[in-house]
Write a structure and sequence with these properties.
By secondary structure, this protein is α/β, with parallel strands linked by helices. It has one domain: 4-Layer Sandwich (Purple Acid Phosphatase, chain A, domain 2). Helices cover about 20% and strands about 20% of the residues. It contains seven helices and 14 strands. The strands form two sheets. It has a seven-stranded mixed β-sheet. β9, α6 and β10 form a beta-alpha-beta unit. The longest helix is centred in the N-terminal third of the chain and has 17 residues.
Length: about 300
């Protein structure tokens, strides 16, 4: 099995948001969202499984176009006594019929060569059913070897079929911990920070009160949907990591995303509102069609340093 490091791209500095950015159609609710979800379920669970044995273009695309985004941030409100932190953000794996085990294994092995302090899985670990994860659990297991562990939060696809608790149990078995409306203190270097995870915005049951009461306000929040960001900013959370949007999945040159999953125009890259920072990854997988264009799949390495 050949192994190569992904090509790198530098993410732009956080874009300042006003908090008033809105799309005319809210992609988080309404009949369009219901139609999209049902089409996604039909395609991922009942159509492509019969085609995957003869047609699997997405793994070819991953091999050619998978990239590593890199960014350094110094969030206001980050604990000053915490050593520099290197986070590997992997979102939207979408384990299932578009993804082959061998391809994901190569990606995981190459990313672990980057020696992150912590790995975070930002939701949508499966495509159409929790059982999609079964062939991939052992492949994801090495992520837990990161010094500060590997952590997961739920996305909307993780609720499409089956019992989402099965995902948590499978990940627990290989040392990957799930955060659902809860937080944990993490010791790093000379200090501590609080890591939290909020449930999915669309199909989960986000509980901010429970999140904030477990160990106080998180310094680092895992939130699959970036539209959680404004509430996170209102709570004074310094850094939020998200996915969900796929960067649009299909984008024309110099154009906006074709599939618009963020009501607040938080499509990919880094954003800032007041004292809070958000980083949105394009993610690794694909839905509806096994293809991307203009929004190549990625993982993101985030270097977090404390304010001086």
């Amino acid at each position: 099995m050949s192994l190569k490091l992904p090509k790198k791209r530098q993410l732009a500095p956080p874009r300042e948001m006003t908090g008033k950015e809105r799309r005319r159609i809210n992609p988080n609710k309404g009949w369009i969202k219901v139609l999209e979800r049902n089409a996604d379920i039909v395609i991922s669970r009942f159509l492509f499984p019969y085609m995957a044995s003869v047609w699997s273009p997405y793994c070819w695309l991953l091999d050619k176009r998978f990239s590593l985004g890199e960014i350094s941030v110094t969030p206001t409100g980050w604990p000053k006594d915490v050593d520099p932190l290197r986070i590997l953000l992997i979102t939207d794996i979408h384990a299932g019929i578009f993804l082959q085990a061998e391809t994901l294994a190569k990606i995981v092995e190459s990313l672990l060569r980057l020696n992150p302090d912590m790995v975070v899985l930002g939701g949508d670990i499966v495509s159409g059913h929790v059982s999609d994860l079964d062939p991939f659990v052992k492949i994801l297991a090495p992520l837990s070897q990161a010094r500060l562990g590997a952590w997961f939060c739920y996305g909307n696809h993780d609720y499409f079929g089956g019992d989402p608790e099965d995902i948590k149990n499978h990940l627990d078995h290989v040392g990957i911990k799930t955060l659902k409306n809860e937080a944990v203190p993490i010791h790093h270097g000379q200090g501590n920070f609080v890591l939290g995870g909020i449930d999915d915005l669309i199909l989960g049951r986000p509980d901010w009160e429970r999140l904030l009461s477990s160990h106080g306000r998180p310094h680092l929040l895992l939130a699959h949907n970036p539209d959680h960001f404004y509430e996170a900013a209102a709570c004074g959370i310094p850094l939020t990591l998200s996915g969900h949007t796929h960067g649009g999945q299909i984008r024309f040159p110099n154009g906006g995303p074709i599939i618009r999953q963020s009501r607040f125009c938080l499509d990919e890259g880094a954003y800032a509102l007041h004292t809070s920072t958000l980083i949105v990854s394009r993610g690794l997988g694909s839905v509806l069609i096994p293809w991307r264009w203009g929004a190549d799949p990625e993982a993101v390495i985030i270097q977090v340093t404390s304010p001086t």
